[in-house]
Design brief:
With 210 residues, the chain is of the alpha+beta class. It has one domain: Gcn5-related N-acetyltransferase (GNAT) (Aminopeptidase), CATH 3.40.630. It contains seven helices and nine strands, in the order ββαβαβββαβααβαβα. Strands 1, 2, 3, 4, 5, 6, 7, 8 and 9 form a nine-stranded mixed beta sheet that branches. β1 and β2 form a beta hairpin. The termini are far apart.
């Protein structure tokens, strides 16, 4: 499958200035930017930047960012699922994962995450993909947000809904390990029915077990 990455950008009002939302961004461009020191939800910020640079170089990899001048204050990643996860087992070429979305705390509250997702999905080529995201409560910034698990889950669902992702049932053990965890999915308009059927077989692998 040939992956097409159509660059786009938009702006978002923030205090007395405009934030730039853009992508997919190349690895070369990412290297030029500084990263906000509070982008640490998944790993230390310098390691996170290195990880995003690597993803940007993948054929299917997409990094869309929010920046305040030359400071990256938010990002979302799209790439193939981890080979160790069940979602890679079907070798579905047009199944990609929204692997991470993170907004620096001081830039939250202006719908930055929702706007970034909407911009990401606006690329017409995204209609060729099944997009999944696996939400695990242990990745959520409960302390920084002041929200409990269910309030944060509701917030995440609303944000993902803005990008067209909705809740899908699954018997995946890791997702099923806590009721707040969930699988959210967007099936592009150009995805063929047999591909959707393949995906359904990935979602439920234990349906005949008692």
């Amino acid at each position: 499958m040939k992956h097409k990455k159509n660059y786009s950008s938009t702006q978002l009002a923030y205090k007395d200035r405009a934030l730039i939302l853009e992508g997919p961004v190349s690895s070369e461009k990412l290297k030029e930017y500084d990263f906000h020191p509070d982008l640490t939800s998944f790993r230390p910020v310098h390691e996170q930047k290195d990880a995003l640079v690597e993803i940007a170089d993948l054929p299917e990899g997409r990094i869309n960012i929010i920046r305040d001048h030359d400071l990256v204050v938010g990002y979302v990643t799209f790439l193939y699922p981890d080979p160790l996860e069940r979602w890679s087992e079907g070798n579905i070429e047009n199944l990609i994962e929204l692997g991470a979305i993170e907004i620096a705390p001081e830039y939250r509250g202006v719908k930055a995450g929702k706007t970034l997702l909407q911009m990401s999905i606006s690329d017409p080529f995204m209609e060729e993909y099944i997009i999944i995201t696996t939400e695990y409560y242990w990745h959520w910034d409960l302390k920084g947000s002041g929200l409990d698990v269910w309030e944060y889950r509701k917030m995440m669902e609303k944000m993902m809904n803005a990008g067209g992702l909705v809740w899908f049932a699954t018997d995946d053990p890791e997702i099923s390990s806590h009721p707040a965890n969930c699988l959210m999915v967007r099936i592009g308009a150009n995805v063929q029915p047999d591909t959707v059927q393949q995906f359904d077989l990935l979602r439920f692998q234990n349906r005949f077990m008692y």
